[in-house]
Amino acid sequence: MIRSRPTYANGDSPENNIIHFQQPNVLNEEIEVSFEMKGFGDITTSQPTSHVFPTDQADASSCAPKNRIFSDQADLGLARGSLDQQKRKMHLFEKNVPNPKVHESKAKFCYYDLVFGVSAIVIFLFDIVTDVMMVVHYFREKQYEYGGVTAALVAVSSMITCLLGLHWYLIDYHKEKKRTTAEHLTLTPKYVWGLRILCTLFMLGPVVRIIEYLYYGLKSRNIKCHQEEREKYKQAMLYKDLNSCLLRLFESFLESAPQLAWQIYISIKLKRASDTISISLLVGTLLSSWMSLAMSLLSYHKSLRNSNDLKAKMSFKSLPFYFIWRLSEVGGRILCIAFFASAFDLWVFGILTLHWIIVSVWLIMQNTSFYKKNLQEKLFNLICSFVMIFCFLNMREGHTRYRVIIFYLLVYIENAFMLAFWFRFTKDLGAWFHLWGFIVVLVLFALHVSFQVVYYTLFHPTQNIPLCLSCDRHTIYSSMCDDVTHSRREESPAENVNAPNTNQPLESCTPMLSGSLSL
């Protein structure tokens, strides 16, 4: 076992320095890196995670961004704020050893974050209101089948996100109670928990989480507060933001995505002239669902990068490119699903079910580790694989581009099949949407590819992303399935007795190490 000591860019003092590790002249040598820093003591590097969230609000069942030093970190990753102090061993490769670069924490709450949060609330509420109005409209028109399915989509998705939100609150409550009992801290008032649970039960769980995020964000900017207190508010802000975005992500794809496909399907089936109010309501429903999907993806991606000081933050000018990329990706996919369903009805579920099974097996092969219990892990994988019916989600660290290539290859083969069969066998030959629908799908495909390439080429926070990666079997397998170079964690964060005191400022937590973030 070889031990490596860090050198500092500005002398021997660990303060205000970027850590550089001296690379031994070895190839494929397993190395355990240890170092000393002021305020940290003698620390052996743990599995680096996002240490910006209080332990009393984290749990083994949370999804944490697991950053390893020599992997292209998941840019499209999925995580819920947590701490993982599990010790890891890292494999150093002589030709692939980047210096770990800690970005200055720039995840400060700005006024455009306030506008962004308020916009997310408005889009969420507008989406729910228009869906309810569509249900009322269908029942008034005595179209009970359409109204019933529309209502069921809203109810089922709300029930799932409600249970998920309550489950997270239960975890947070027990962790907070345990922490406050041990350290004689103040427990969150019961009326606050009551309001959280009440809002969650009334389908407003994401809203109350966004409001808490905005509250802590504004408090973190209060110059009247001490610096240490503002840092704690910032930690709470990042935690609330990450959880609210993840909850909205699930809500959007469990409700907005099926709702969008269903409303397009109804519009094709009815093909009747409607009054201005009905058309306006339909257009509002379609646009709100579509925007909600893209906004949830953008919000979560932004919050995930903000939660990790090792990752450069998204610039304001990069947001439109990411938004249009995601907007065109889910838009083209849902159009293909709706078009095929309008011609072949229930046969569309055969394609989607097959896709769901393939992706579910793929996620299980990746050995994700978001939950301590195996059953919860598999159920979470099933929910995530449902989201991946419509777009790509990265579920683990490592090289992502091979997973992206495989996923998009599968998706666009399915899209081409559904679009071609609809265009050839539809009963709506000659209808205005027959040719235009085909053209719109092709345009959305071009926009998806173009804006994704432009984003990663010019506007990605991580600069100089390599165009080519190694094509050896180990790299490809580790990218598409399980990373065989790293063992599975054997203990949960809750079981770790050496967890740091999370009531200290951000700097008191274990420093994180990571490689470049690329796709």
Q: What would you say this structure looks like, in words?
A:
- With 519 residues, the protein is mainly α.
- The protein contains twelve helices and six strands.
- It has a two-stranded antiparallel ribbon with strand order 1-2.
- A hairpin with a 3-residue loop joins strand 4 and strand 5.
- Helix 1 packs antiparallel against helix 4.
- The N terminus and C terminus are likely disordered.
- It is a multi-pass membrane protein.
- It comes from Biomphalaria glabrata.
- This is XK-related protein.
Rg over alpha carbons: 24 Å
| Order of adjacent strands in the largest pleated sheet | 1-2
Major sheet details = 2 strands, antiparallel
- The proportion of strand residues reads under 5%
Sketch the topology as an H/E string, one letter per element: EEEEEEHHHHHHHHHHHH
Q: Could you say which structural class the secondary elements and strand pairing correspond to?
A: mainly alpha
Poorly predicted tracts of residues: 1-100, 484-519
How would you briefly describe this protein structure?
This protein is mainly alpha-helical and 519 residues long. The protein is 56% helix and 4% strand. The chain is globular.
SSE layout and pairing:
Layout: E1 6-8, E2 19-21, E3 29-31, E4 34-37, E5 41-44, E6 90-92, H1 111-140, H2 144-183, H3 190-201, H4 205-220, H5 227-270, H6 276-306, H7 319-344, H8 347-365, H9 374-387, H10 401-425, H11 432-459, H12 473-480
Antiparallel strand pairs: 1-2, 3-6, 4-5
Family: Belongs to the XK family.
Region (Disordered): 491-519
GO biological process, one term: engulfment of apoptotic cell
